[in-house]
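Ticket #4471: structure export looks truncated?
Reporter: QA, pipeline team
Priority: medium

Steps to reproduce: submit the single chain below to the structure queue and open the exported record.
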Amino acid sequence: MTPFVSVAAYAPPGVGMLGAGIVSEVFDVRGQGLPRFDFALCTDRPGRIRSDTGLPLFVEHGLDRLASADLVMALPWADFRTPPGAAVLDALTAAHERGALVAAHCVGAFALAAAGLLDGRRATTHWRFAGLLADRHPAVTVDAGALYVDEGPIATGAGAAAGFDLCLHLLRREHGAATANAIARDLVLPSHRDGGQAQYLAAPVPEDSRDDRLAEVLAWARTHLHEPLGVAEMARRALMSRRSFARRFAASTGTTPHAWLLGLRLAHAEELLETTDLPVEQIARRAGFGSAAVLRAQFVRRRGVPPRTYRRSFTRLPPVP
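Actual output as written to the record:
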């Protein structure tokens, strides 16, 4: 399947200025070696609309732009409690039916739900409005803790800046880790944030010296993925018991040490597969899996394909300095 190139983001009156800025930045034209996206904002009636901040925004394209885009996104907007008009819902449904990838983050998910595209699927939205989404659309399984949920042809992201997480995930999925990492570096963002929305709720962990030690251990672990890291070693370096370390790790990152390490190792293996000609056995050792058999098992389970198939699926790009 050809990765998406044309991207159309629906910006209704009252569109979130942050949401519009996120997708515009991610799919902006960049340097040589990176995809050139055909990106456009579109709205019900082209022209000047007001954003959620009150600032005006000029949108050049109408809903017809949704009819040809490979990736169609519904942006968050201030009056999300009122469903979009029938023409918008029909356009979103038509995009899905013709095989486009359809996505939304924050309260943009309410537009996809109103169109019926989330029925029978998992989805997420801003944690503050997850209950409302679930109450209004009981056929949707709402995951209030996820930063994003990928349901194949439909993807949703959590609130505010989690739009970056969703967009980078879609880039990684469709264009490969090297492209997602390069664009993330250009935006001075992590290419993947670990954990879920819980880590960003109001002060879940009081800041003290143990948080500094935890941050130092995580930074150390990122540069030692090739070693047989375990919770015991990481806890020792953090000067904590295993139980205390696991508890503080989960509170700070929203995930477990094992899942965090596995995610890092898979991401490292992906980039090595895309950007080098190293044998899979050597990549497995560099990423900390020990053997090609273990890497293959984890890759198939987490990515759906074996490493060699993944390598053939993406054009290898030189590392970005």
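Status: closed, not a bug. The export was complete when the record was re-opened. Leaving a note from the reviewer for reference: Residues 198-209, 315-321 have pLDDT under 50 and may be disordered.
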